[in-house]
Design goal:
Elements lengths: L3 E4 L4 E9 L8 H15 L5 H14 L13 H10 L8 H13 L3 E5 H4 L3 E6 L5 E3 L6 E3 L4 E6 L3 E4 L16 E9 L3 H19 L2 E7 L1
Parallel strand pairs: 1-4
Antiparallel strand pairs: 2-9, 2-10, 3-9, 4-7, 5-6, 7-8
Helix pairs in contact: 1-3, 1-4, 4-6
Length: about 220
């Protein structure tokens, strides 16, 4: 059954990619070299007006209710940018490296969910509610989801991803064979979200194999 993603809020453009039968291994040299080049370019663009404007637009997308995208609550794309600037950018595996490459190039935050661990085929993009949270790393640290943009798996309406940090329970690793990627951007950047989604889908198909489908909402 194909994945179904719906968006319940306004002001957000969402790209989604479903990959089935993929293989998650170390990045081949071509992908590793492309990521290294992107990291080098990103490190030089810290004060570029386009970079600054896009960063501000993504932060504004996350301003909702009591949530403020500052400190540890910044979008993951800003974390990646900082790692590039500080010269300590990680390489993990092909799927994660593709995520990081596209996020660096587009300045958009991206989530990747292991579909088998999620145990779901239907996902909803919405705002976080009072009392919602999840563990986001192996050490057990918890992310408060109130008023934060998130992806919830259905049925059960259980959050599993955000533009800030994803749920530890549904993160991908080398054993992942089915994955859902979600790209987030303000509606004013819908064309950029579409282009980044198309590019990421092509990279996953080329470097991880399997069957890849994608789309952009709303």
């Amino acid at each position: 059954m194909p994945v179904r993603v719906t968006v319940e809020i306004e002001g957000v453009a969402v790209g989604w990619i479903e990959a089935r039968g993929c293989t998650v291994a170390d990045s081949r040299p071509a992908l590793a070299d492309e990521l290294a080049a992107a990291v080098a370019r990103d490190a030089r663009s810290d004060d570029d007006p386009c970079t600054v404007a896009r960063r501000a637009a993504v932060r504004d997308m996350l301003r909702h209710g009591r949530y403020r995208p500052t400190g540890r609550g910044k979008p993951s794309s800003e974390y990646l940018h900082r790692e590039a600037v500080e010269g300590r950018f990680p390489t993990i595996n092909a799927l994660v490296d593709i995520n990081n490459l596209v996020s660096l190039q587009s300045l958009l935050p991206i989530s990747v969910v292991d579909l088998d661990r999620a145990g779901a085929e239907t996902f909803v993009v919405r705002w976080g509610r009072e009392g919602e949270s999840y563990v986001f790393n192996p050490s057990g640290q918890v992310l408060d989801l109130r008023d934060l943009l998130l992806v919830a798996r259905m049925p059960g309406d259980r959050p599993c991803a955000t533009p800030v940090k994803d749920c530890q329970e549904t993160k991908t690793d080398a054993s992942t064979r089915a994955a859902l990627a979600v790209l987030y951007g303000p509606t004013a950047m819908a064309s950029e979200v579409g282009e980044a989604t198309r590019r990421m889908a092509g990279l996953i198909e080329a470097h991880c194999g399997g069957t890849v489908t994608w789309g952009v909402l709303p």
